[in-house]
From TrEMBL:
Keyword annotations of the record: Membrane, Transmembrane, Transmembrane helix
Membrane-spanning ranges: 122-140, 152-170, 177-195, 232-252, 273-296
Organism of this sequence: Streptomyces dioscori
Biased composition (Low complexity): 38-60, 75-100
Keyword Transmembrane in record: yes
Protein name: Sulfatase
SUPFAM superfamilies: Alkaline phosphatase-like (SSF53649)
Residues covered by region (Disordered): 1-119
Domain of life, source organism: Bacteria
Length: 657
């Protein structure tokens, strides 16, 4: 039939009915409504011939061009057209109350879509698939490095099923808003999971939403010290761009998938019902693949876990404030504090990242153990003796100040909130006990402190020498502002080597064993240390951090060498400059990060007491520590916060709560 055929060319359709003359249609009144203009349904109905003509025209248009992708998430197969038409028809019917409405044909494709419809469909499918994979990745992403396995991403997340069901029943505007908010929420969860991964890798714990924001400034400073200002700025910019990209891509992905669900509502409903049924069955039966539960609800669990941690943190702050006010030695008279150490020069020294792994790891142990044995022999030859044990640090992989404050305060300072609480109070510290007696001059050697440090008064230090006051004129060794040997040499020049009317109590922080453990200083003759300029060539000839830090074997080797250097510098100092009244207490502040100490390593660190006076070590006979500088497996393991009271009691202090 020709496309120009009309009803006037078919006079034989009804020969029994006389043809009525066509009457001109009267113009509607000016105030007539649209309904009146349209006429009744009978008047609007097309004749069979007109219907046939319209069908033929539609077929012809379909042959000439393919329907355009109305929405970026719409399927390109032929079945999408009837579904779209049904939806449009249903919407029009709901709006007017009628059922006889004409559905608009999809717009004609233009530009590249019209020229390359196959490629356009491929791009559409690819982008939609990537959006779905990104959302699934966010829903299934673990927050611990050792849980990253292929099986984890082959699970069925209940959050996806629930989200699809919600989005399908919402009207367009509300669906768009909900999709955007869901995408931003998934972006936030992804960023938090990435932070958890980083914190677990470096600090052995997840990110604390309440307390850990302050650590970003420390991380930036660490990057500047390790990579230079330009490198640090580049990393910060890259991180910011990554965070923005995660939020934007996640929101766009959810919106895309929401539009697809709306376009393919029939299929999406059936698929959601099937997926929900499968999830319930697998959850009830405990179906697993490669040891991983197939029916996943990890996102909901992660959200609940974070909420619980926030609540626990806020509760912990209130409870710790009460604990910090209690002090066994708070009102002990000065004369009754450490009477058995009167007249002794006491040094409390912390060696950065000196953990149990340094002594026991197969890679680091041979070198470190050999140094500990050699230095024990040197001490014995010089008339000294040593005993060693283990302490469990309150921190891991970093945040050294938490270990320092735990050891000195006798309180478990495991987070920044506790640190702020205790340093803002007047809880008695181990170093503060010596100051309270009035019989010691108390000083701090802090090469790692590069700005004002008000905590010095809390620790009971009469004078603090930070990196700006030690007179160093040499280069930095990555994060460490100066070599340990120089810091000890400056201590000798500024305090220990001077004539005094009081013995000296000192807190010394050694930093050469701070990550990334490259370059490492070398031990040189003490009389050549000078102002540190001699270290320029040593630093220049050392290894680069980038060549060491990311190699699992090299980083362990260099970590071990850094501990060897720090221990050697400290013991050599005691042998050279110590005397019969010298008492040294030294320990590690925490274990190194997981790349060195191993996943899920303990938090134990070595602690040693060195003295020339035999009676000093006799006071701790009942501690059952190991003779020498290397504690063995039989040595007791105490929590670090228990050391203050044990030490004060051992050396004659009388408790007065």
């Amino acid at each position: 039939m020709s496309s120009t055929t009309n009803s006037h060319q078919l006079p034989d359709l009804d020969r029994t009915t006389p043809k009525e003359p066509e009457m001109p249609e009267a113009a509607p009144p000016a105030d007539s409504t649209p309904t009146e203009k349209a006429g009744t349904p009978a008047e609007r109905a097309a004749t069979p011939a007109e219907q046939a003509e319209q069908a033929e025209q539609t077929d012809s248009a379909t042959d000439e061009t393919e329907p355009a992708d109305v929405d970026i998430s719409a399927d390109a197969d032929a079945s999408a057209v009837p579904d779209a038409a049904d939806e449009a028809s249903s919407s029009a019917e709901d709006a007017s109350g009628g059922s006889d409405k004409t559905v608009e044909a999809p717009p004609t494709p233009r530009g590249r879509r019209a020229k390359h419809p196959g490629a356009a469909r491929t791009v559409t499918y690819t982008i939609t698939t990537l959006a779905a994979l990104l959302v699934l990745f966010a829903l299934l992403m673990p927050n611990e490095p050792d849980r990253f396995r292929p099986a984890v991403f082959l699970r069925l997340p209940v959050e996806a099923i629930f989200g699809a069901a919600v989005l399908m029943v919402l009207p367009k505007t509300l669906r768009l808003i909900t999709a955007v908010l869901a995408g931003l929420s998934l972006g936030a969860m992804t960023v938090l999971n990435l932070l958890d991964l980083g914190f677990n890798e470096f600090l052995g714990r997840g990110f604390n939403l309440v307390l850990d924001w302050v650590l970003f400034d420390d991380a930036r400073t660490y990057l500047e010290d390790s990579m230079g200002r330009t490198g640090a700025v580049a990393v910060v910019v890259a991180v910011i761009v990554l965070v923005i990209a995660v939020f934007a891509l996640m929101a766009l992905s959810v919106v895309r998938l929401a539009n697809l669900l709306a376009r393919q509502s029939g299929r999406a409903t059936r698929a959601t019902l099937v997926a929900g049924t499968v999830w319930v069955a697998c959850s009830a039966l405990g179906v697993q693949f490669a040891g991983v539960q197939f029916a996943a609800r990890s996102t909901a669990g992660a959200v609940q876990n974070r909420v619980d941690r926030v609540q626990a943190t806020l509760k912990d702050e209130a409870e710790f404030a009460k604990i910090a006010k209690k002090d066994k030695f708070a009102k002990t008279p000065p004369a009754q504090l450490v009477p058995d150490l009167r007249g002794k020069d006491v040094i409390f020294a912390f060696i950065e990242s000196y953990g149990r792994s340094a002594i026991e790891d197969p890679v680091t142990a041979p070198g470190v153990d050999a140094v500990l044995d050699d230095k024990t022999a040197e001490l014995t030859e010089a008339g000294y003796a040593a005993k060693s044990g283990w302490l469990t640090s309150a921190t891991y992989g970093g945040s050294s100040w938490l270990g320092h404050s735990t050891f000195l305060s006798g309180l478990w300072i495991s987070n920044q909130a506790r640190y702020r609480t205790v340093t803002a109070g007047d809880h008695l510290t181990l170093t503060g006990a010596f100051q309270r007696t009035g019989d010691w001059r108390t000083v701090g050697i802090m090469p790692g402190v590069q700005k004002n440090w008000p905590e010095g008064s809390f620790y009971g230090l009469d004078n603090v020498y930070d990196s700006r006051e030690l007179g160093y004129r040499g280069p930095k060794f990555s994060w460490s502002t100066m070599p340990d040997q120089y810091a000890l040499s400056a201590y000798q020049r500024l305090e220990h080597g001077k004539k005094r009317d009081k013995p000296l109590m000192s807190e010394i922080i050694l930093t050469s064993s701070h990550q990334p453990w490259a370059p490492i200083p070398k031990t040189i003759p003490w009389d050549e240390v000078g102002d540190g300029s001699v270290y320029k060539d040593i630093q220049k000839d050392g290894k680069k951090a980038s060549d060491v830090f990311y190699d699992s074997t090299k980083v362990k080797e260099e970590y071990g060498r850094s501990i060897e250097y720090s221990v050697t510098s400290l013991i050599d100092y005691v042998v050279k400059y110590g005397d019969k009244n010298t008492v040294l207490v030294f320990l590690g502040d925490h274990q190194p990060l997981a790349r060195v100490s191993g996943d899920h390593a303990n938090r134990d660190v070595p602690v040693s007491i060195v003295a020339h006076d035999k009676s000093v070590l006799d006071k701790i006979d009942d501690w059952n520590w190991t003779e020498g500088l290397k504690p063995d497996d039989t040595a007791p393991v105490w929590r670090m916060d228990s050391f203050r009271d044990r030490f004060l009691t051992a050396y004659g202090s009388t408790p007065h709560p």
